[in-house]
Amino acid sequence: MGEETLKIFESDFYISEMVKVWEEGRKWAEWVYQLAKRLGVGNRVLDVPCGIGRVANFLVNVGFSVVGIDISERMIQLARKNVGGATFIKGDMRRLPEVLKGDRFDVVINIFNSLGYYGEEDDLEIMKSIRQVTGGVAVINLDNRDYVIFNWPEVYYSYVPPYMVIDTSKFEPTTSRLQVHRKYIDQRGREVGQLKYTQRYYSLHEVFSMVRRAGFRVVGVYSGYSWKEFEIGDPQMTLVLVPS
User: Which fold has domain 3-143+202-243?
Assistant: First the structure.
């Protein structure tokens, strides 16, 4: 992730979007709690990248011992402010063994489509890094490339208080990268800011290949934070992995 991309995710505009979906963290925490019970693993969770703590907060509330890692100093500061009872560390998820000094966790979560901002080899390094700190189970949640190809609108409007947000997107099929140009409009109809970024999207078979190369075995694939088995038309895929 380049410096310019990192600045995007540290911006007030992006953080306002994270605040809007804060409650979604509760649904993920409940799902992780059920997963840990099903598999009989312990309660130490690594949340990477942790962002502003929207999942960590609810994981703590249901009894997990949580460590969050994010490459953004501002995200870490906000997570510490937002969440009590968890530990937050600034660090690169490509170098988790180094950041955590060899520590391992019962559950490692990488959710909210957090891959694809680097190159493909970097994403493989992230998977290898996660594998080295996984003592029990890992969870990888990504948007589904095959859904994006046929369903992602060229122009998408949303409301992120206090802004109207207009996304103009273009999918590049030769690289599987989505190029996004996002504009923020205030209540007077004035453009007050914009973000531009690009992200690599993966199909399920590509993720299977990557996690196997990283040393994982796939034990389940679900649709988002549900227990519905993933189908090709689902917007999100959530892979449950154990060390092979």
Answer: Rossmann fold (3.40.50)
